[in-house]
Structure formats: C-alpha cells, structure tokens
Specification:
Length: about 250
C-alpha cells in the first residue's frame, strides 16, 4: 500500500478540564471515503478543527502527505490540500452563489483566476444555472452543494464534510452521495461526518467511531454495525436488529 495521505497519531485536545479528543490514531489513504460517526459531543467537529488548524492539538502528531501539519494555521493547511465545510452552513447569505464559491478560490488564485475556477466548479457540481442567485434564497440541498463547491474551490486533496446532509430528504441525500462519489473518482479523498446512518453506510467504505473523544472502532460499515461497543455507545440495539434482518448495502 502507498503511504497514507493523512496520518493522525495520538492526537488529544483539551478545553480546560474537558478532553474533547483523546489520544486518537488513524490513517486515511488517497481515494478513500471515510465516515466519522459518534454521539453528539463525541468530538467529531473538534477533530476536524484540529486537522484543519482551527485549534492546535494539545498533544499528538498530524501529518499530511508525510509532512507535519498539526498546529499550522488553517490557510497553510488548506494550501497543502486539507480543508473542511462548516457544520451549520456558514455561507455569505447576502452574496451570490458564484461569489461564495470564489472565496474558496482566492486561497490559491488572484480574483480573475478564482472566478474562472469557481465557474468551472459550479459547472462540475451542477450549480451553474443558479450562479447569480443570492445564497440566502437557496434551498437546503442547494446550500449543501454550494458548501461543497466553495471547499472544492480551494483544490483540496482531502476534503472534510461536516454534516452537509443534515436537513436533506433521502432523495436529496442520494444526490449528495452521488456527487461525493464522482468527486472521489476524480481524485478527491473525503472524511464525512453525518448522523444519518443509512446515508453514511451507503457512502463510506470505512467508518471511524468516536465516543467521549476516544476512537472506539475503525472498520467497514458491516463490521461497525455489528460492533458491540458501537451499538452500545451510538447505534442502539434496534439498529443492530434491523441490520441483522436487512444486510447493510456497501459500495
Ligand atoms: N471551543 C470549545 N471550547 C470548549 N469546549 C468545546 C469547544 N469546542 C468543543 N467543545 C466541547 O468538546 C466536546 C466535543 O464537541 P464537538 O463539537 O467536537 O462534538 P461533535 O461530535 O461534533 O458533536 P455533534 O454531533 O453534536 O456536532 C463537547 O463537549 C463540546 O462542548
Ligand atoms: Mg459536530
């Protein structure tokens, strides 16, 4: 196997007396779509914040393409190719879809090139027809796409999606799943936080499970859905029963 794209080794983050992320270790390889799941407050968003430089880790080591990235500023990490969307969509609501996506392109480009790049990406994710619409006037599925488009405009190798499917209907989730798959086929690697288990299990080939900041499992959706610790901490006995009568569909 090739060297991992992302290496996370013993990463811990404390907020005062609270250990939000506790000694977490895992790798992500190029081309993977990895799901990160766990109960509310488990540390998923905090882990994304550590990976992307919003907060430095209290201890531990993060490497992107073999080079230490832990503790660097977000724009430096984004330039190296790791970026994230924001939980509870943080678009500029008064600006157009195009201008929102252009902000991502400004990381690596001057304005004219950023605009060209943004237009290409809007085309790629199927948003060209609404490029001039005000972000505040968009539906939830359109906002999710714009969030992904803005992050893509930074040209990430590894893109972290934080609950972009929240508030979507099952049919709309299917569309996002298809989009993420096709972007992966074009070369982007993903870590995806979602609470909607059916969507996560369908989209991801591997799942990481956090509980009270600790990584309690790392495996395929089928392995995770049968893991006793995960069932107890997060999925619940009903989920396990349903899965037993209806095998999990994986990619
Ligand atoms: N800046 C901060 N200061 C203090 N505590 C924080 C901070 N950010 C997160 N926490 C705490 O860290 C823990 C993990 O929170 P986090 O937001 O990472 O959870 P999560 O897994 O993303 O949850 P959810 O599924 O609800 O989004 C929580 O107890 C939270 O209150
Ligand atoms: Mg969160």
């Amino acid at each position: 196997m090739t060297a991992p794209l992302l290496e996370v080794r013993g990463v811990t983050r404390r907020f005062g007396g609270l250990i939000a992320v506790n000694d977490v270790t895992f790798d992500v390889h190029a081309g993977e779509i990895v799901g990160l799941i766990g109960p509310n407050g488990a540390g998923k968003t905090t882990l994304f914040n550590l990976l992307t430089g919003v907060y430095p880790p209290s201890s531990g080591d993060i490497r992107l393409e073999g080079e230490a990235s832990g503790g660097l500023k977000p724009h430096k990490i984004a330039r190296r190719g790791m970026t994230k969307t924001f939980q509870n969509v943080a678009l500029f609501m008064e600006s157009s879809v195009l201008d929102n996506v252009v902000t991502g392109g400004l990381l690596n480009n001057a304005l004219p090139e950023a605009r060209d790049k943004a237009r290409q990406i809007l085309d790629r994710v199927g948003l060209s027809a609404i490029a001039d619409v005000r972000a505040g006037d968009l539906s939830f599925p359109e906002r999710a796409r714009v969030e992904v488009a803005r992050a893509l405009c930074t040209e990430p190798k590894l893109l972290l999606l934080d609950e972009v499917m929240a508030a979507l209907t099952p049919a709309e989730m299917e569309e996002v799943i298809d989009l993420v798959r096709s972007l992966r086929d074009d070369g982007t690697t993903f870590i995806v936080v979602e609470h909607h288990m059916k969507a996560v299990m369908k989209l991801c080939e591997r799942l990481l499970v956090l509980n009270f900041g600790e990584l309690i499992a790392d495996g395929t959706p089928t392995e995770i859905s049968r893991n006793d610790r995960v069932i107890e901490a997060y999925l619940g006995a009903n989920f396990a029963k349903k899965q037993a009568s209806q095998p999990v569909e994986t990619a």
